[in-house]
Amino acid sequence: MNETLHSPDHHPYSLDEPHVEHPGYGTFIKVWAALVVLTFCLVGLSHVSQSYAVWGLLTLTPLKAGLVFYYFMHLKYEGSLFKIVILVTLGTLLIFFALLFSDVAFH
Amino acid sequence: MSGHVHRDDLGSRLGMWLFLVTEIVLFGGLFIGYSYMRYKYPAEFHHGGAELNATLGVTNTLVLLTSSLTVVLAIVAIQRAEKKRALAFLGTTLALGLTFLVIKSFEWGAKFHHGLYPNSPHLATLPPGEQVFFGLYFTMTGLHGVHVVVGLAVLSVMFWWVATDRVRQDRYIHLENSGLYWHLVDVIWIFLLPLFYLAA
Amino acid sequence: MSTQASTAQPSYLVDTGARKGLLAWLTTTDHKRIGLLYLYSMITFFFVGVGIGFVMRLVQLTTFQKLITAQTYNALFTVHGVIMIFLFVVPGLPAIFGNFFLPILIGAKDVSFPRLNLASWYFFMAGAILAVLSLFTGGGAPDTGWTFYAPFSLKTGTNVSLAVFAAFVLGFSSMLTGINFITTIHRLRAPGMKFFRMPLMCWALYSTAWIQLLATPIVAITLLLVILERFFGIGIFDPSKGGDPLLYQHLFWIYSHPAVYIMILPAMGAISEIIPTFTKRPIFGYKAIAFSSMSIAGVGSLVWAHHMFTSGMSGMALMIFSLLTMVVAVPSAIKVFNWVSTLYKGSIDFEPPLLFALTFIFLFCIGGLTGVMQGALAINVHIHDTYFIVGHFHYVMFGGTGMALFAALLYWFPKMWGKMYSKKAIYVSWFPMFIGFNMLYFGMMILGMMGMPRRYYVHLPQFHTMHVVATVGSWLLVLGLIIFFATLLYGILKGPKAEDNPWGGVTLEWTIPSPPPLENFEVIPTITRGPYHFDQQEKA
């Protein structure tokens, strides 16, 4: 899928610049360790009380997902276009959610 | 077709990310449905969540997180032309993915054993909110399971391509894109764990 | 940018590969051929849909004694909706003209993922075949209406599962096309083709592709849930198991309202191409039109619940969605004003494409303004689920998207086939089409105001006169359509050879031969100015 008929020269005026640096093994292993720790924090919170569990869900889970997106999925090393794409997607979902709850929450 | 064939790796990655956008929104629809129902039936969801085996859920989280790590390490290995290492990492990912499915099937099996499956006579005796909880549980973990199977199939192809040098140091976009898919499967599970096993 | 580039490359219509004939077409990865594959298949489905609509109008010629049973009538309006929406209006302009012209308009040789593009067409055809199969297999044609509302869609014995699965597959095709277009626009613009030098059609396709990406998955999962519900009884939409049919409506319309903008945005893009060419003026307010496309895509995704004003939502939601519905009219109006301003003091060349483009503006305004009416809560309660709604959305879908598709077809016809159609015959076809269209759909709006509910098999005697008027209108409309498409078909087969630039357009497609060569451009052009530079041309 990556072979395209293409104008032979450069890409003009795009938001995306090619990524150059390749991080090594160490970075990712550190991120993995952080993810494991966060998971156990989440489990710990869920044992404290229901409201702690919900707060853990609302804060730690997006943080974990963010780490996977940012490091494992190389978002850190991509141009701004990729970041905008993801932000637009999450923003859209958030707005769908909010508008739906304008119905549910006011019944 | 003739003409100058140009490789556009960035374009390929962009295409893959856009595909992931559709996957995020697909599961996003389910998460919105979950919130809607949870808002409607908070007590029933709490009770339903208590019936799930959190230990298995957490174990599976660790399994998937580690499998995500090994995929990304395989990419590093390919970038450094360490083929054997890349194969070892990818093989670990495949094994961990299978482990996830095995644990998942034990978990589902236990639920079925207790008569907790959609349309079961036992489920029909539970309060409506709990029926919806288990409906969502089976739908969301099931759809996630389908994604795991697809991801494993794709990664097996990648394993083969690395072994046969179709994926190599100067041409590893396919492995990168497959990795992206696998990480997304991981991210979805990161959300499923607290929604069903911990905070419900 | 040389104008009449003579080229050694053969036309894309000539088989150059190893495969010949039909096989060459079915395995092509050329965006132009894929565009034509979509065109031919969609026009076929369009006529099936027209045929069903025609029969439905015949049924309404009588008050109680009917040609067909009530169950068949239910199946007919369901299938008419499914075919027209999922197989014609939603994918129509992007799949046909987007595929054919997007790469050419931005100076590229093809889309980013040509093989994925062909795969999209196969998904489309698979979905179409499944949809047709659902009519004849299982418990008979689905009778739920195209919206598949729960809980009826969960309980009916007709073949809803297959029809819903067909829509799921069609959604997949739509998403893949969207991915392809966004990547193409980001990666394959010719040197110097900045975002604000792109023709407005590209902006329209770009915003459409974003809606396809962000909204289609929601309907995919919703339809999947309907299937799971029917097979396994998971209970999410089933009130007897604690589920909520309102959730179905929400999820369904989160996609299906933005889908309306998937239908209309590329239509607006095509009109924005046609108007400058036939007035020989740069378009008035280029950036305003470009941004209005993006804002329609954005705001249009936030108005879905105006389909549910009578479903029992909270008062808060009613007010929010009513307000947002009114707001979405603003960017649409911006476009209309800009088109009209472009016409002002232009050197107008009243060729067939412009005639249909103006028809679009007229009919779309009626459709759009009646839409604003329905956004008002009090009026909506009165006309909800009446023929007024049916009339309104036909003005937008057929009078809007349909007419724009015809206009685009007339505009780009000489480029696509290198032939010319008979302009006289097209003018002739316009009269019955236009008169019939308004008799039919304005008649429906009057019926709705009188109180005629939609989807009813029988009607009361007081509605009879208007029903007859509408049915006669449908005959005229079909007559016009037949003349129109017969003219085009004759043009493809026997028409005189067209010039490379018959309309005097200045966008990139008019700088290459008709029909375009295999790889579009001999040399990829370098762009130094905006797309509609008629003013600069005169000076030079």
Question: How would you portray this structure in words?
Answer:
The complex is a heterotrimer of chains A (107), B (200) and C (540). Chain A contains 3 helices and 1 strand; from the N terminus they run βααα. By secondary structure, chain A is mostly helical. Chain A has 2 domains: 52 residues; 29 residues. The radius of gyration of chain A is 19 Å and the shape is flat. The N and C termini of chain A lie far apart (49 Å). The N terminus of chain A is likely disordered. Chain B has 200 residues and is mainly alpha-helical. Chain B is 82% helix and 2% strand. Chain B is built from 7 helices and 1 strand, in the order E-H-H-H-H-H-H-H. The longest helix of chain B is centred in the C-terminal third of the chain and has 36 residues. Chain B is elongated, with a radius of gyration of 20 Å. Helix content of chain C is 67%, strand content 0%. Chain C contains 17 helices and no strands. The chains are: A mainly alpha (107), B mainly alpha (200), C mainly alpha (540). Chains A and B meet through strand 1, helix 1, helix 2 and helix 3 of A and strand 1, helix 1, helix 3 and helix 7 of B.
Could you list some keywords that capture this structure?
heterotrimer, B: 200 residues, mainly alpha, elongated, C: 540 residues, Cytochrome C Oxidase, Chain A, disordered N terminus
Summarize the entry for a quick read.
The complex is a heterotrimer of chains A (107), B (200) and C (540). With 200 residues, chain B is mainly alpha-helical.
Largest interface (CB within 8 Å) is between: A-B, 54 and 56 residues
Helix content of chain A: 55-70%
Outline of chain A = flat
Oligomer: heterotrimer
Output the structural class of chain A: mainly alpha
Instruction: Using the alpha-carbon principal axes, give the shape of chain B.
Output: elongated
Terminal Cα span of chain B: 55 Å
Helix tally of chain B equals 7
Mean pLDDT of chain A: 82
Low-confidence stretches of chain A: 1-15
Radius of gyration of chain B over alpha carbons?
20 Å
Topology:
The complex is a heterotrimer of chains A (107), B (200) and C (540).
Chain A: E1 3-5, H1 25-48, H2 50-72, H3 80-104
Chain B: E1 5-7, H1 9-40, H2 42-50, H3 54-79, H4 83-113, H5 121-125, H6 128-163, H7 173-198
Chain C: H1 21-26, H2 31-59, H3 70-89, H4 92-105, H5 114-136, H6 152-155, H7 160-187, H8 200-232, H9 245-279, H10 286-300, H11 315-343, H12 352-375, H13 377-383, H14 387-417, H15 423-450, H16 464-494, H17 534-539
Helix pairs in contact in C: 2-3, 2-4, 2-5, 2-16, 3-5, 4-7, 4-8, 4-9, 4-14, 5-7, 7-8, 8-9, 8-10, 9-10, 9-11, 9-12, 9-14, 10-11, 11-12, 12-14, 12-15, 14-15, 15-16
